[in-house]
Amino acid sequence: MISFNQVEKYYGDTLALSIPQLTLEAGIYWIQGENGAGKTTCLKMLAGLLPFKGQVLLDDHIDSRKAPIAYRKKVNYAVAEPLYPEFLTGHELIQLYLDTKGPGPYAVEELARTLGAGSYLQTPVGTYSSGMLKKLSLLLAFLGNPSLILLDEPLITLDVATVAAMYGLISRMHATGVSFMITTHQALSEEGLLLTGTLQVAHKTMVRL
Predict the structure, then answer these.
(1) The whole model's pTM is what?
(2) Does domain 27-49+75-208 bear CATH number 1.10.390.10?
(3) Average confidence (pLDDT) over 192-209
């Protein structure tokens, strides 16, 4: 579960997003909205990457502002266009994440095989294509023991087989209690992913449809 209470995000004096009160039970949520509506801003706030006013509470007791370390250990985030230090290998990035997040229920080898990323993780990320970077970012998002995984435009640059594999991972992790918030302009397949609900970001707020 995640709840918003009097959440406001300003850029300077300009209000970007206001969520007075919203509580979401554990589930898989599709966040919709036009370009520039504030979807990525919302995810970055939830990921602990942007400061804001108000309160975001995870699992009824972890406050993102009062307990930022505990909160961020339970929230994983895959950005829309991943960018990593080019001299590091995928394996080195994975090890860095594991050192931070701790081990989880899925072995790295299993995730890499499922997402089709196993063949290139020993090479520097500067040699990766956009699709390879996207697969790595998804793999990193599935590490550890998160309560919430945020996926920003996860479908772009992915082939059909990897999208199906990602849907499978999301469904399996959700069955163990992990929640997902996903932004995408592409329709999420109802056949591949059973959604709990849809959220709309518009007019500088987010509501459940």
Answers:
(1) 0.96
(2) no
(3) 94
